[in-house]
Amino acid sequence: MRAWWAGLAPRERYVMAAGLATLALVLMWLVIWEPIAERRQALRNEVSALSADLAWMQGVSDQVRRRASQQGQTTPSAAGGSVLTLVEVSATAAGIRSSIERVQPEGEGARLWFAQVSFDALVSWLGELENRHGLQISQLAVDVSSDPGVVSARLLVEPR
Q1: Is 29 exposed, middle or buried, given 0-12, 13-18 or 19+ CB atoms closer than 10 A?
Q2: Burial of 99 (0-12, 13-18, 19+ CB in 10 A)
Q3: What's the DSSP call for residue 8?
Q4: 3-state helix vs strand vs coil in the chain, percent to 5
Q5: Per residue in 79-118, pLDDT tens?
Q6: Which spans are transmembrane here (predicted)?
Q7: How many angstroms separate the most distant Cα atoms in the chain?
Q8: What is the CA radius of gyration of the chain?
Q9: How distant, in Å, are the alpha carbons of 48, 61, 120, 146 from that of 53?
Q10: What pTM was computed for the model?
């Protein structure tokens, strides 16, 4: 390589050195600077979108708090329905009614047996029972199924 370089005329060496320097600058631009600049712009766009979401959330937060406090005051007895009725209606709305194997009244609450129910749907429904309907889950036993994300469950739902 040195022999080849030494064999070049001084003008050819100057042109080759300038070409290599230009190539090095272009490669640095493409490999280092451009990805950093693109990522920076993407982060700016994301910050703008998240700022808009935050502004919207702050705007409706009072309304959400009012609704939550109104729903938190609603208990099964205040709503005029029993725990059994509330469980049946909310399970139907959540799309897991078909997975209920058995419902048995127990005290003021209800004991339920689920077979082959989606775990995500079950947990979401249980959260709704507690947060929206004022019920509590006193006992919960979950058994894993051979299908991913599917479980069998036994639980006791009672008023707070």
Answers
A1: exposed
A2: buried
A3: S
A4: 60, 25, 15
A5: 445 888 888 888 998 899 999 999 999 888 899 999 999 9
A6: 14-33
A7: 102
A8: 33
A9: 9, 12, 26, 40
A10: 0.50
- Long-range own/partner contacts, residues 126-134 (CB < 8 A, 24 or more apart): 126/155, 128/90, 128/94, 129/86, 129/87, 129/90, 129/157, 131/71, 131/72, 132/71, 133/74, 133/76, 133/79, 133/86, 133/90, 134/72, 134/74, 134/75, 134/76, 134/159, 134/160
Single-letter amino acid code for the residue at 88: E
User: In whole angstroms, what is the distance from residue 136 CA to residue 160 CA?
Assistant: 6
Whole-angstrom Cα distance, residue 121 to residue 118? 5
Which residue, 136, 104, 105, 100, is CA-closest to 117? 100
Residue whose token pair is 């390589």: 1
Do 88 and 103 meet the contact criterion of CB atoms below 8 Å apart?
A: yes
